[in-house]
Amino acid sequence: MSQLAKASFVVAFFAMAVAACGSSGTPSTSPAASTSSGVAKASPPTPSPSLSPAPTATPSPACTGSELNAVMGAGNAAAGGEQAMTVVLADQSSKPCLLSGDLPAQLLDSSGNELNTSWSSTANGQAWLAPDRVTLDPWWPQAGEATLVVRWHTGDIQPGQCSGAAPQVGEVRFTAPGGGSVIANLGLESGVAPCKGVIVLGPITQATAPQAYLTPTAGAEAAAGEEFPLATGVSSYQVKSGNQAAYVMYSVQYVSSGCGGTTYLWQDAAGWHVLDSVCVQNGGYNPLIGEPISIFGAGSGCAEVYASPGHGSSPIACLSWSEAGLGTTYTVDQGPTYVAETDPTSQVQDGTIWWHLQAIGWVSQDFLVGT
Questions:
Q1: How far does CA 109 lie from the centroid of its chain?
Q2: What's the CATH architecture for 210-281?
Q3: Which residues make Cβ contacts (< 8 Å) with residue 329, sequence separation at least 6?
Q4: How far are the Cα atoms of 13, 47, 275 from residue 303, in angstroms, in the given order?
Q5: Other CB atoms closer than 10 Å to residue 333's CB: what's the count?
Q6: pLDDT band at 153 (very low <50, low <70, confident <90, very high)
Q7: What is the pTM (predicted TM-score) of this model?
Q8: What contacts 58, CB < 8 A, 6 or more positions away?
Q9: Which pLDDT band, with edges at 50, 70 and 90, does 234 fall under?
Q10: How many whole angstroms from its chain centre is CA 315?
C-alpha cells in the first residue's frame, strides 16, 4: 500500500428543481381566430393557468482540488520505449463528487518545482467518487475511486535516447474540474522521465472491484509481489479472519533489512479482494486486533465513529486525526468487518472494512492506515 495520508473535501450535490404546472381545473384551449367578410374576429380570451417558475438545474458537483487525493504507481512498459503509470484519484470529503473531462497536468520535481511539461489527452471520461476515501493504494484501486493512465516515451530518437531533456519527475499536479489542484506523489521505486516532458493522459475511468482470489493468502501473495517489487523474499503468512474480511501478516525481506507486511482483504460472492497493503516499521500505523492505533488524516479534521459498522449506522463521536499519527492512540478490539454499501447519490459501491476501537465505536479503515 502506498502509505499516504489524505485529506478531506466537501462538494455540492446534483439537484433539480421540478416546476409544478397547473390550476384547479383543466385549462381550455382558445380556438383560432375566425374570419368573416375578410374581418378577423378574435375569440374571447381564456384565463391562463398560473405557472410556477421554469425548472433550473444546479451545477453538477464537480470535484475540487481540495477534495481530492491521489497516488501514482503500478507502472508498466510498452513497445517502442513507451512507459505508463496509473494514477488513482479519490474523494476524501464527506460527500461524493463527479470527476469528468480533462485533468491538465504539470510535472514537478521531488521538491515541488515545475518541470517542462507538454500534455495531451486521448479522451475525456468520467467517474463518480465515493466519499471518505482517505487511504489509497495505487496497485489496488477500489470501486468508488477513479483511475487515469499517464503515458510517455523515454526517447524520440530511439528508446532511451532523447534529443532534449528528459526531466526526472517526483510529483504530478493535476488541475481539478471544480477548481484547484491535487498532487500525486510517485512511489520511491517508481521512475518517470518523459522525453522533453511530453506526456499523454488517458481517459478518467471508474474503478471497479479488484481481482478476486480464492483465499486470503493467495490475495496477500499477489499483493506482496506488487507492493514490494524489490523484496528478496516474502514468507511466514499468518491469516486473521473477521466478518467477510481478513488480514494477512508476513515477513518482507530486502537485501539488507526487512519489515512486517500486512495485506487487508474483503470478501464477496466472487472471492477475496485486496483493499490495501502496508509495510510498517512501527506500531500504530495499521489496525491489528489487540494493538494500539492512531487516527490519520491530512490537515485538520476528525474521523466519524459509528455505533455499528457501516455509514448507515448512527455517528456517535468524531476523533481528531493527525497526519503523522502523533495524537491519541486507541486499542483495536474487534474486526475486521466488511460492509457492502452503495452511495445513495452516485450509486457507486462504497463498501469498506471497519474496526472497533475499545470503549469508543466503529471506524472505517481509511482513517486507521498511516505512513
A1: 24
A2: Roll (3.10)
A3: 284, 292, 293, 294
A4: 22, 58, 19
A5: 14
A6: very high
A7: 0.78
A8: 12, 14, 15, 16, 17
A9: confident
A10: 23
